[in-house]
Design goal:
Elements: H1 5-19, H2 27-47, E1 74-75, E2 82-83, H3 88-93, H4 98-105, H5 116-129, H6 136-157, H7 170-174
Antiparallel strand pairs: 1-2
Helix pairs in contact: 1-2
């Protein structure tokens, strides 16, 4: 015979007390809270509104991550809050990082976790400032390329060297 909700709540709280997570003096409050949570879960299960397996036994519909990224905001698929960008700090609250968040929801790794306006503005700033041109390696390569081009131009602009006629040896002049 299945357990009643009250018995399940009691068993859960007893396990919490034995594990040392709930002090015995908070027993009443913890029991009431757990009982209320179990009643709420049972009601959701009966209506089919619970987030795991629905009441009819079918798997939940997959989350469409594309709808979570709009023009001005991105919605966190974990908690439902909206942001201009999903920061690593926020994702850490859910025990995730950018890579694991993308993997969990099937988001391509090249998809920015920010609103479209924010992504477009960042792209515009990068195109205007061209930060790679300020890097030492880039400047050194540019200088090397310019020096090579100048050498090539100098060689092609210089007049060709005149060839002296070959002097004939005594053996060649006799024939």
């Amino acid at each position: 015979m299945p357990q009643s909700i009250l018995e399940m709540a009691k068993d859960l709280i007893m396990a919490q007390i034995q594990a040392g997570r709930v002090p015995p003096e908070d027993l009443q409050q913890a029991l009431e809270h757990t009982y209320a949570s179990l009643i709420e879960l049972k009601m959701k299960e009966e209506t089919g509104a619970v987030g795991g397996v629905a009441g009819n036994g079918s798997a939940p519909a997959p989350v469409d991550w594309k709808k979570s990224i709009t023009k001005n905001a991105i919605t966190c698929l974990e908690c439902g809050r909206t942001f201009k960008q999903l920061s690593t700090r926020h994702l850490r609250e859910h025990g995730l990082d950018g890579r694991s968040y993308r993997a969990k929801y099937g988001i391509p790794r090249t998809q920015p976790l920010s609103a479209r306006v924010t992504t477009a503005r960042r792209k515009q700033i990068v195109e205007e400032t061209r930060p790679w041109e300020k890097a030492a390696r880039y400047r050194a390569a540019r200088e090397r390329d310019e020096a090579e081009q100048m050498e090539a131009a100098a060689k092609s602009a210089a007049p060709p060297k005149k060839r002296r006629p070959r002097q004939r040896t005594a053996a060649q002049s006799r024939s």
